[in-house]
Specification:
The protein is an alpha+beta fold. It is built from one helix and two strands. The chain has a domain of about 40 residues: Erythroid Transcription Factor GATA-1, Chain A, CATH 3.30.50.10. Strands 1-2 form a two-stranded antiparallel ribbon. Strand 1 and strand 2 form a beta hairpin.
Length: about 60
């Protein structure tokens, strides 16, 4: 039989090991709770990407 070992990854929210396979419907999270906490952080804009407020244009575009 050709069975692969089940890969486990750290849950991005709590750090607990979670199965990373189609049988874990919350992957890469360990549970629905951790998935919803992460979704809530995105929805409340707790996660942000630092970037300048105005985009810089290449020097050629100013002509």
């Amino acid at each position: 039989m050709n069975t692969r070992p089940i890969k486990k990854v750290a849950c991005p929210q709590c750090g607990q090991l979670a199965e990373f396979s189609p049988s874990n419907q919350y992957r890469p999270f360990c549970s629905e709770r951790c998935k919803m906490i992460d979704l809530g952080a995105w929805a409340s804009e707790s996660y942000r990407i630092e970037a300048p407020l105005t985009p810089e244009l290449p020097e050629d575009a100013e002509e």
